[in-house]
Design goal:
By secondary structure, this protein is an alpha/beta fold. The chain is built from 7 helices and 16 strands.
Length: 248
């Protein structure tokens, strides 16, 4: 078998393992939600495609439209990856990033970057994007994720509000968010939350739909099925959607 044929087969296998996209209705048509891998998500809405934290092989994104907007949450390699960004071949994509990420961008990507700090809101291509805190507790000088360096995000897609936690612990800014329709909440020790912290925060956050994502840590994969049970025991109205973010 030739190298090209082998590569094609590998791509086919990757696509076969990728979870199916979900759709929810908005005032401007359906929002497609495509889990990709770990922290990577692709949204398609109103003729636009939004990538969140694309990392790993660009082949993970084969078959998906090129991004119009790329949101990046933090500087770590599972969120920001220069090689992946360049392999995606999306020279006109707008990059929404915290300043710490902007400082790492090569010049060809920096030209399209919009820097957002915690608390800032911008409207791009019909979407309202707000940058939110994401950080570890307790706040210490040697924290893996100090407050203010990275961004979580909310995105308003035609009246549906989506929350992306980024790398955060059980912070009050997450618990007090209101009117969240879809949430992506991380849970991987020792970097973010354990499933008990995440489930407790999820109940206060009270989204209509929640996806546990970013759940691979030093000890392997977090028990997302147990997370679902914990959330359901407190609030059966939250739709906990388990997807396989680690098909490789």
């Amino acid at each position: 078998m030739t190298g090209a044929m082998t590569l094609s087969l590998c791509t086919v296998l990757l696509l076969a393992q990728r979870p199916d996209a979900d759709q929810i209705e908005t005032t401007k048509g359906p929002l497609s939600i495509q889990p990709v891998q770990h922290a990577s998500i692709v949204f398609t809405w109103n003729g636009k495609t939004i990538y969140v934290d694309p990392n790993g092989s660009a082949k993970l994104f084969d078959g998906l439209a090129s991004p119009d907007i790329i949101l990046i949450t933090d500087i770590h390699g599972d969120h920001y990856n220069t090689k992946t960004l360049e392999e995606l071949k999306a020279p006109n994509a707008v990059l929404v990033v915290p300043k710490a990420v902007a400082d790492l961008l090569p010049e060809n990507l920096k030209a399209n970057a919009i820097i957002m700090s915690n608390g800032e809101t911008q409207t791009k291509m019909g979407m309202t994007i707000t940058a939110l805190p994401m950080y570890n507790l307790p706040e210490t000088a040697d924290s893996r994720h100090p407050k203010g360096r990275g961004n979580g995000y909310t995105i308003d897609f035609g009246g549906k509000r989506v929350y992306i936690s980024g790398d955060t612990e059980d912070i009050p800014e997450m618990r007090t968010l209101k009117d969240i329709d879809v949430a992506f909440v991380c849970m991987n020790l020792p970097y973010t939350m354990d499933i008990h912290m995440a489930a407790s925060a999820a109940v206060d956050l009270n989204p209509k739909i929640i996806y546990p994502y970013h759940y691979r840590g030093q000890g392997g994969l977090s028990d997302t099925a147990e997370f679902k049970k914990l959330v359901g025991a407190s609030d059966k109205n939250i739709d906990v959607r388990l997807r396989n973010w680690y098909a490789e």
